[in-house]
Amino acid sequence: MKTSVQQALDAIQREKNEPICAYIYDLAGIQEQVRGMLQTMPRNTKLFYAIKANPDPRIIEALLPLVKGFEVASIGELLKVRAVSHEVPILFGGPGKKESELKLAIEHNVSYIHVESLLELRRIIAIVKKRQQPEARVLLRINLRSNTLPQTKIVMGGGPSPFGIDEEAVEEAIELIRVEGAGAVRLCGFHFHSLSNNMDARLHAEMIDLYLQKVERWQQQHNLQVDVVNAGGGFGVTYDGSPGFDWSLFTALLQQSEARKRLAAHGGELFFESGRLLVADHGYYAAEVTDIKRSHGQMFAILRGGTHHLRLPASWGHNHPFHIVYTDRWKHEFTRPEVRGERVHIVGELCTPKDRMHSDAEIDCLRVGDVIVFEKSGAYAWTISHHDFLGHPHPAFHYLMEGDEHVNVNATFQSANC
Ligand SMILES: Cc1ncc(COP(=O)(O)O)c(C=O)c1O
Question: Is the entire prediction scored with pTM above 0.85?
Answer without folding.
Answer: yes
